[in-house]
Amino acid sequence: MSISSLAPDDLRVTIHSPSLGFADTSELAHLPLPWIGQERAQTAARFGLGMEQPDYNLFVLGEVGSGRASLMRQEMLSVAANKPVPPDLCYLHNFDAPEKPRALRMPPGQGRELRQLMAQMCKTLQKDIPERLGGQEFKTESERIEKAYKIEEARAYAELDAFAEARSFALYRENGHLVFTLLGDKGNALTEAEARSLPKERRVQIDQAEQELRDEITRFLDKTRPMERVMNEGLVALRRQVARPVLEHEIQVIRVGLKKQIKDSVKLGAYLEQVQHDVLDNLEWFEVSDTDDEARQAALLTVSSRYRVNLLVDNGAMRGAPVIVENNPSFRTLFGSIEYQPEEDALVTDFSRIRAGSLLNAHGGFLMLHLRDLLTDEVVWEKLRRFLRNGRLQIEEPGPMIAPIASVSLEPEAVDLEVKIVLIGSIEQYYELQEADPEFGRRFRVKVDFAESFTSTEQTYSACGVFVAHVCKRLGLPHFSAAAVAGLLEDSHREVDDQTRQSAIFAGTEALVMESAALCRARAGTLVEARDMQAALLARKQRHDYPTSACRKPLPMATG
Question: Is the pTM of this model over 0.85?
């Protein structure tokens, strides 16, 4: 067996630039960015993103810099573009239980329309109802009702006054109360001392007369209270009769304005009915009066605030399904939150202060998360596991952090979500989770495994040229000549020490593209040449190959 020596060129890959088929990367910028050497991962990704059934979430594993996040986002956007736009999500005041706001799904764009229609309704009611209640027709009829009550009440009072006078008492009204005073023989009011100085027999008669008068006052009140109730009921019915046409017209405008088929139409219909009843029950605050105008305005503002629409998710301007990349998955940014404001040494809130998180915004589409971010917060990870188990999201505050000082707490209605989660992690994290949490495998049934290297072919060389073209276009860098790209490809082989395989860690290639472009610009060039790329490689070697202090030979220590 003969042993032959190898020349230096036999130990490296040499790529001839004419074989690449382009002069520079500007010719490739219009081509789509391919999954270079990641065909298996791309096939798995397309399968997982296309599965409509629950629990087919994706776990994307691979080394940092392999393009796993950027390529997955590109594929998510491609799939999402052909999916239907998901509905809007609103929260409404719950008239039966204000601490439990109602969730309402609306066709995309109609959540905003409902909010505008309800706001316009409030403006119209605050203008038209006071005008109608201040009109001459209402005043005439209300005065007739009040006059009828006053006539009957005056007749009963005159009888009571005569009853009191016959027993030597003067009767008069004071601050809404009936007060009587004992009269002397000359018709003057007796003081308490004068009353005590009367003969005993006279005092007994007075006590008996006083008791009779008190009994008669009770009968008078029993007789006039129903009269007053009839009057008040008549005034309420009159207000309702005057205001109802305005209110019914505005409610009908809302129903007609929402033309599309609404999934939660029954819930919306019930809500509008409750709004109508609530307005009619609070008409007194719409009636303009000369006194307590500030208090009336405050009460009217409180009433009308119940008719606002809290639009959490507005998909009116979307095309296709949402693609959300959450790089800061805290409890509030991921699951939503409830805002509080201080008021008289306490924290208060209402349905209008509920805020959406990434999960709500991603309904009907895709949400990308990095596992390393989730595992740093045990509360976030545990709530995400609960959501994956039941598919329902309850917006809440984490733990008891708000409760001790909050005078009002909310429990918004939980909503069902359809979100496909794309979780990015390392190979080690994937298998650690598989072992530590048996349920994990059931929720993430699609494994998207990015390779660290791949077999080189003419197709992979061309695809790498497209990658360089996209980097230059995205970062505004000068494009690369074919010779410069050939140098990048040769370096890719060196990274894996294999003449037949290339490195799939494209973050290093991207960094080398940026460094080569910087040297090109430094010499005022407009096209990155092979010499720029080689100079960037040499500069990198000089930066990173300098021996550290741990590798240097220690200096001899002086001895005394």
Answer: no
